[in-house]
Each structure stands twice: as C-alpha cells, then as structure tokens.
Fold each of these.
Amino acid sequence: MGTFTIAVLGGDGIGPEVTAEAMAAIQAVGTRFGHTFTLREALVGQAAIEAEGEAISSETMALCQRSDAVLFGAVGGAGVGRPDAKAQPENALFRLRKELALFANLRPVRTLPELLSASTLKRETLRGVDMLVVRELTGGLYYGKPSEIREGEGGASSVDTMVYTEAEIERIVHYAFELARERRKSLTSVDKANVLSCSRLWRRVADRVAAEYPDVTLRHLLVDSCAMALIRQPRDFDVIVTENMFGDILTDEASMLAGSMGMLPSASLGTRQTKHGQFGLYEPIHGTAPDITGQSKANPLAAILSAALLLRYSLSLTDEAHAVEAAVRGVIAAGYRTPDIAGARGRVVSTREMGAQVVARIAGAR
Ligand code: IPM
Ligand code: MG
C-alpha cells in the first residue's frame, strides 16, 4: 500500500478536461489497490501566463521536482511565434523537459483491432502494428541558439540552430537499444545524414553504440524515407530512435495508424530515480484542440494511457498500469467512442462518459 505524490498540470484548451479523467482513473486505481495518491494541481501554459505572469512559475517547477511524477495535459494559446519566451505557453513544456532533464520521450504506437476502421489507412496495413518511438527531447532545434527573426533593411531573415553533442546522442541511442532488447530486438535510427551534420554525427555514434548490443539489429533510415515506410509497412517497425523535431513530426504521423492522436500517450524520462521508480513527465501527444475545448468532445484515452505509463515507470505499479490499460481496451471493445474515433460503428460519448466508463472498469464494476 503505497503513498505517492503526483504534480498535475492540466494546462490549456482540452488539457484540463482530459487530465481530469486521467486523475479519476488514478484515484480509481488507489481505491481498488489500496494506494494513496496525492494529486497536486498547478497552472501551466496560457492559463499560468494570465494568472501568474509566466508559462510556468518557479513554485510550480519546485512542485514538480518534489513530486514522484508529473501528469501533464497540453499547452498552447492563440497565435504562434511570440518572441518573448516567457509569454509563450509552450515555454512551460520546454522548461520542464530541460530542467527536469527528461531527455527520452517514449511514444508507443499500437493498433487496436476495434479501431482499425477509425484510421484512414487500410486494415491489412494496420493489423498488428506495435512500435515504440524514442524521441530525443532536450536537444536539437528546440533549444539551439541563436533562434530569432532578424529585421533588416533588405528584408527580414531568420535563424534556428540544430546542435547535438556526442554525449547527447549516445545516451538516447543507448536508451533505445536497451528498450529494443526488451522487445523484438530491432532498432531503426532515423536521421537526415545526406544533408545534416548533426545527422552524420548521430549515425556515427549509433554505429559505435551498436557494437555493445550484438543481439539487436540496427538499421538507419533517412527521415523522409521513414515517413513513407511508416504508412507503407508500419509493421516493419519495432523501436525507432530519432532527434527532437523528427520525432515530433513522425509521431503525429504514426498516431494516424492508431486512429487518432487522442489514443497516443507518452512518457518523458531521464536518469533520476525516486524511491518509487524513475522520475518522469507523462502527457498525451495531442495538443490543446481549441476548436472543441469546453465541449466534452475530446478523447481522454491518451491522457488515461499516459497515467498508466506513469504508474508503470515512475511508481513501479505494474499490475495497476495493466488494470488501466485493460480498462481502456474494455471500453473500446464495448463500443464506446469519442467523436475522433467514431467511424461507422460504436456509441459516441462525451469526454466525461468515456472517463467514467474507464473508471467503472478499473473499479471492477464492469
Ligand atoms: C509535442 C508537441 C510539442 C512539441 C509542442 C506543443 C511544443 O507538439 O509534444 O509533440 O513540439 O514538442
Ligand atoms: Mg508534437
């Protein structure tokens, strides 16, 4: 019977709605398995900018540091590209990832038989897809300096910087090899080595690390070719490892295999251990979806599945994580659908109802 503290940052748009259902799922786990979860909520993103003057306050950062794990919703406001970083909602995420040293972002992509028709792709292509994308999260274009628009007399110019050190590449590639070892022992490293120096170094380091994992097969794929192969033969992939921005783009694409972004969870991990497990931040890969905010139309399953990853990695509660994942499969098998995965069949329900159905199954009522 454990006692755990989780920082909960719902954020903007549909973030708080889906996070509320993930919290309910965690509390249902507490009731069923006899654990005490203390969930401490704080503002982040646009909501924090308006109330506290910055995308994430030092107090909220400290709360996250003190907790066993962080459950995150989504951030983003109206508009893009405001130059003042403090007034940019996404800055909260960048600060959390960097300051908590969460360099490994795990994004599992699996297809459920009942949801094959929710995808725009053919069923035969989708059946049995089970891959894990390992996205480097604290380097590359997201953090390189300079990054700015330069106003000039002859017109503006702009610059972004991609930087990767050998050490950064090595630790994420190691991480991915370890994960591949526990799965089907096949690792695809994705880069753009025919154009980018960062990618050439990436490939060199990946080949070197590969020597330590003779039981795992490593192949290199250029990112454009990978984008194609993901749609053409998604079953060919086991573990994918790639740099920050390629991973961002490829996982939105891969989410379409699962039928919806609303189905894909993620775990962001580093090396810090707490007394319960590996410290981490857990978030659905989707964004704030302003078009459906406040209407209880969002799919809470990605957030709930993120909570399952939290239980597994940060709290070492394996049976509990399984219970949540089984509950999610149960509601899908029973035909409950939020609009994003509705397809031709199934009963369309609200965010709240979907969450309640999951909770009922965790509790063992259904
Ligand atoms: C993601 C998101 C973020 C990212 C945005 C919100 C900055 O797209 O987590 O995939 O690009 O990392
Ligand atoms: Mg993204």
Amino acid sequence: MSRTVYVNGEFLPEEDAKISIFDRGFLFADGVYEVSTILDGKLVDNAAHLARLQRSLGELAIPLPCTMEELEAIQHELIKRNNIDAGSVYIQVTRGAEDRNFLWSEGLKPSLVLFTQTRGAKMDSVAEVGLNVVSQPDIRWQRRDIKTVALLPASMAKKKAIADGANDAWLVEDGFITEGTSNNAHIITRDGKLITRALSNKILHGITRKAVLALADEAGLTVEERSFTPDEVKAAAEAFVTSATMFVAPVVSFDGTAIGDGKPGPFTKRLRELYIDFAKKSLS
Ligand code: PDD
C-alpha cells in the first residue's frame, strides 16, 4: 500500500512526491535529518530530536522552512494518515535547489521532506538477541555532531560488516572507538562502570545516549565519559549500542571475541527496560 508522505507543503502519495534534480541534498548531500521513533502511535523523546535538528540546521546556516510547531504537526499528521502504531518518522531538510555550483546562493528556499516507516519485528529481535560487531576504520568527515545526510561511509561500513558475517561495525579512529555506523557505542566494565565516548565533533550527540546516561545510576552503574579502545571492548563485561530505532541493544561479540559470556548481560537488559519505560513516559 502506498504511503502518504510530505514534500514542501503538500501531503502526497509517495509515488507522486518529487524533488528537483538540482536539489543540493541530491547534488552535494547538503542537508540534515532526524529520525524519531513511533510507539503506540506517538513520538519518543521528540522534543530532543527537534532540538537537535535545529542545532544541525544552525551549524550549516540552513533555515527551517516552517515553525517547529508546524513541523511537529506534520509528523503527527503523517502518523495519523498512515495509521502507524510502531515505526519512525524521518525528517529531512536540505538547503534547496539551484543550478549546480559549489557556492550556494543566500536566500535559497530549503526543501522539507517527511515520511514514515513501520518498525520491523526482525529488528526488535536482533536488538534483543544481541549484535555481533566488527571494527572498521572511521573514514567519515570531522563534523559528525551534525546529523547530515552524507551517510555513504556509514552505509559502506554496514554493508562490509554484513559481508564479513557481522551485524554492524564500530568505527575506530586514532586507536579509539568513535561510535557505531548508526548508533552510539558503550561498554560496561567488570567493576560496574558504563564507559562511553565524551561528546565532541567526533560523534553524533545521540538522543538515546543522553537518556540512557541519565538512567545509569538507577541501573547501579557509574558513568565515565571517555574514549575507549578495541581492547577494552574485548575485555568488557558487557557492551551495547543506543539509537532511536534500536533503543538499547546488546553487543555480544567484537571482532570475533565474545563479550562477557557472549549473551546479553544483566546491566544492558536493565538499561533497555529502563529506557523503554522512559520512552513510554516521553511520548507526545
Ligand atoms: N542514527 N550515531 C550515529 C552515527 C547515528 O546515525 C545515530 C542515529 C546515532 C544515535 O543517535 P540517536 O540516539 O539520537 O538516534 C549515533 C539514526 C537512527 C539513523 O540514521 O537512522
């Protein structure tokens, strides 16, 4: 069945939705995006996603072509029109369209696209059973704090991880893990510390990461925001990823070495439960 999507002011069947071939999102990956999860027909921690969208746009000096209230109303209209109970809403804002030129003109009209996706049961089960992760060099640009649509390095890394028999990759730069291809990376040490890389231009400032760190104390963990190495991952008691779509998902092996006993660990399970409770309370 065809979805209803939103493009520049209109709700349309997906096959009728059009964007110019001169759109700078298409030609230069000059745009940003957000993914908010839908649970029970409502959005998880959505205000935080919209705030990050605003920040990403600000860093690239792209204006939002509507108000935040209007954007939120479009998200909800799409959930309603597509009758989605569990899934996600994708928002993309690009700088706009004009004849191809590295230098863009001031005052371009940004393009705004939103669509929904339904949540697959397969993804939920992978997230619960645990992920086999491999390391790969981080070849992305140096402004990973901006959620841009330039996702080719992440796509390539994920594709290679699957070809290598794993589920995903954790990216390594200067000897330290930065993050996963589309998630933040965390380990739990044998003495009950949750170690996660500190915020900087090197990683996306994950919305789920932030919520989970605030719940760590309740799970009996102390948080240390610092860089960690692949060897520390292998020696960890547990490891997990966070993202809007995976919530908290255990990592059960790293570069072929089992983490802990090779099964999802108790702290990760607890954090996943606590996060799902938080997510339900945050619905709007
Ligand atoms: N990805 N790091 C990267 C590189 C990401 O792409 C994502 C999210 C995260 C986690 O951020 P958050 O908790 O705010 O979702 C970290 C989304 C889900 C995606 O691209 O589909």
